[in-house]
Amino acid sequence: MPDDIPFFHVALNLPHAGRIARRILNLVSGPTPGLGAEADALRATAAKLESLLVPHLESDENPPPFTAGRVRDEAATLARKLVDEIERSNAGHDRLGQCVRNLFECLELGREGAVISLRAGEDPKSFQRPS
Asked: Which regions in the chain score pLDDT beneath 50?
């Protein structure tokens, strides 16, 4: 991963990650003409990600460090799989890519998020991207 890519460094925030996972699920849940099994796999992964993080939605704080680390690692794994499925199904677009970047930022993985969000369709010239 390039060291010189700009990114936002955000502290771990599982409650906000849950809100972003819900946005992602909403973005991929609509009808996707021309997509079959790829869209189903994408939606299933987005649903798994959302259900992993939804218990933290109503909290203003992260769970204890051991639990937070486990949830973060599992969410990052699911988010990487989600991006693979976005690419495979050709479902990426700017808003979805921005959500992916924001999710990785909330998982304290801002540098990875700045790179992987482009694969999910974020416009590299977006004013929302770090510069």
From this structure: none
Q: What is the pLDDT of residues 77-114, one digit of tens each?
A: 999 999 999 999 899 999 999 999 999 999 999 999 99
Residue in the block written with tokens 């990650």: 17
Question: Would you list the DSSP string of the chain?
Answer: --TTS--------HHHHHHHHHHHHHHHHS--TT--HHHHHHHHHHHHHHHHHGGGTT-SS---HHHHHHHHHHHHHHHHHHHHHHHHHT---HHHHHHHHHHHHHTT-HHHHHHHHHHTT--TT-TTS--
121 in Cβ contact with 93 (< 8 Å): yes
Whole-Å CA distances, 89 to 9, 54, 86, 101, 108: 30, 25, 5, 19, 27
- Judge if pTM exceeds 0.70: yes
CA distance 43 to 26: 9
Give the pLDDT of residue 128: 86
CA distance 79 to 59: 21
